[in-house]
Amino acid sequence: MGGTHIDAAKNLTAELPIEAIPAPEKVVLPLSMHIGAPAKPLVQPGEKVYLGQKIAEAQGAVSSNIHASVSGMVVGSERRFLPNGTVAACMVIKNDGQDTLDPTITPRESGLVLPPDEIRQLLAEKGIVGMGGATFPTHVKYAPQSSGRIIDTVILNGIECEPFITADYRILIEHADEVIRGLKYFLKASLANKGIIAIEDNKPRAIELFNQLTADDPNISVVVCPEKYPQGSERHLIYAVTGRVVPERALPSAVGVIVDNVATAMQAALAVKDDLPCYERIVTVSGNAVHKPGNYRVRIGTLYSHLVEQGAQGLKNAPARIISGGPMMGFSLHSLDFPVLKGTGGLLLFDHQSELAKLPPENPCVRCGKCVDTCPMFLEPTQLFKAVKRRDWPTALAGHVGTCIECGSCAYNCPANIPLVQYIRMGKQFILTDGFGGHNPYYKK
C-alpha cells in the first residue's frame, strides 16, 4: 500500500556518459548548502584561494565545511535565494583559470588502513554531505551513538526514483569502484558488518555490474527493489531491504541502520583516499527546452545558466518551466540565476509544449481518496491540506503532518489538481519555524 507507479522518463539521458563542463568565470558558494548551522567564512574579499581550499568552517554539532571549487580571488559576499526558496550568505570567487590545487591535499595509498575515527574526521574535514538531496553532514551520521546503539548495516541508496534524473545511475555505471570503496569506508567508520547496495529493478546493467564486483565480498550484497515511487525514500528503503521499521521522529540509527546515497559514497572515496574535498558533483540536465540533455560533472557554485550553456549547449526553446531537482520533489524556479549546490542532482527545463509546463487550475476536492491510497506514510493529505489552508495547526499536528516526506505522490494523483504537497510543505515550515507556540513535537528550538 502507498506509493505510485510513474513514468520514469529517463531515456533522454540514461545512456549518456558523464561529461565534464568547463569551470565558470565565477562561482557562488552558499555557506549553508547542508542541513544544520551555516559555515563560518575563513577568507575575506581580496584574498586568493586554491582549488579545494577550505574557505568556510563548520559551526556547531551539525554543519559542514565549504571548499573553493576554483582557484582565484574572493571578490565579494552576498545574500541570495537558493533553489528551495531560502536565503543564504554566499561567497563569490573569480576563477583565475589555473585550477591550482590546494598544496595541503595529499593522496594516500589506501584509506582502509585508517582507523574509524580518522575516516570520520576526513569526512568532516572534506565537507562530505548527503548528495542525494538531503545534504545531512555525513560525519555526523557515523559519529558513535550516544545511546549506545550498534550500527550493523549500511545501505547505499542507488534507487534514484525521481523521473528524468540519471546522475546516480551514471555514477553506478562509470564509478562503480569508487562507490564500493566508499561503502567500505562507511562500514569501517560505523563498525557495521553488513553493506547493502540497493538498486531498482529498472537498472539491470547496474545490477549485473555490482553483482560481479561484490561476488567475492561476504560483507557486501546487492538487493534489487521493485520499481515504485518513492522507493528511494530512506524509511521505505530500510523496510524494503531489511524489514525494519523506523519509528516516527526517529533516525535510521534507531534500528541499527545508516543510509547513504551512491554519490555520497563516491565522494567519500575521493575524500578518504585522494584527500579531495567536495567541490564538484554530477548533475542531470534534461527536458525538451535544451539542445543537449545529459549528465554533467560541474563545479559546486556554478550558476545554472552556465551549466545550461556549456553542458546542454543552450536553450532550444524558451523554458516555460524550470525545475531544480526532479518533477516530484524539486522546486520551480523563475530563472537560471541559481548556483549548483552539493545536493543538486538535476535541472529540468520544459517549453510550453510539454505537459510538465502546464499548470491546470486547482479545483475543489472530490473526495476520491486517491491521495490517501498513494501516500507511502499512510497520511490523509486532503485533511492536512485543508488544515493548513485554514491555519488549523492542532489538526495538522494531530494528522502527523511532520511525518510527510514531501514525495508528491498525493499531488501527482489528484484529479482536482490540488497542489497538496506544496500546501503541506508550507504548513510544516510554519510549524518548524514558528513552533505553534513551541508546543509541538516537531518544533526546532
UniProtKB/TrEMBL annotation:
Transmembrane residue ranges: none
Keywords noted in UniProt = 4Fe-4S, Cell membrane, Electron transport, Iron, Iron-sulfur, Membrane, Metal-binding, Repeat, Translocase, Transport
User: Quick one: a GO biological-process term for this protein?
Assistant: electron transport chain
Is-annotated flag, keyword Translocase? yes
Provide the primary localization. membrane
Q: What class of enzyme is it?
A: translocase
Where does the 4Fe-4S ferredoxin-type domain start and stop, copy by copy? 355-384, 395-424
State the membrane topology.
Peripheral membrane protein
InterPro entries attached here? 4Fe4S_Fe-S-bd (IPR017896), 4Fe4S_Fe_S_CS (IPR017900), Ion_transpt_RnfC/RsxC (IPR010208), Nuo51_FMN-bd (IPR011538), Nuo51_FMN-bd_sf (IPR037225), RnfC_N (IPR026902), Soluble_ligand-bd (IPR019554)
- Provide the residue positions that the database annotates as binding [4Fe-4S] cluster 2: C375, C404, C407, C410
Assembly, in brief, is: The complex is composed of six subunits: RnfA, RnfB, RnfC, RnfD, RnfE and RnfG.
Name the NCBIfam families on file.
PRK05035.1 (NF003454), rnfC (TIGR01945)
The free-text function statement in the UniProt record for this protein reads: Part of a membrane-bound complex that couples electron transfer with translocation of ions across the membrane.
Q: Which protein are we looking at? A: Ion-translocating oxidoreductase complex subunit C
Which organism does this record belong to? Answer: Phascolarctobacterium faecium
